[in-house]
Write a structure and sequence with these properties.
The chain is mainly α and 92 residues long. The protein has one domain. The chain contains two helices and no strands. The radius of gyration is 23 Å and the shape is rod-shaped.
């Protein structure tokens, strides 16, 4: 026995609203992820730039390698966390 048309329409409306919320959550999460990646990239570039402007070799090397470590690891861990959240949400 088929379901009544009113019930099917109500179910479809509820599913459309759920899908819209899920897409909005995914877009919001990816936007925050992109902003966080840009933050870590800028922080790494800032530290590498500070290494170029110091007169101490030791401080210059520390800033350079710190900038590389912070920039690259921040981006990698941010993207891995976004992937795990997307897997949990069912985005991919």
């Amino acid at each position: 026995m088929p379901l009544p048309a009113e019930l099917l329409e109500a179910m479809a409306a509820r599913n459309r609203a759920s899908e819209t919320r899920a897409r909005w959550d995914a877009v919001r999460d990816l936007t925050i992820t992109a902003a966080t990646c840009m933050f870590f990239a800028a922080l790494g570039i800032l530290l590498i730039g500070a290494a170029l402007h110091t007169t101490s070799e030791w401080i210059g090397r520390a800033c350079f390698w710190g900038g590389l470590a912070i920039g690259n690891s921040g981006i990698i861990f941010t993207l891995l966390a976004a992937y795990r959240r997307g897997e949990r949400r069912g985005d991919w």
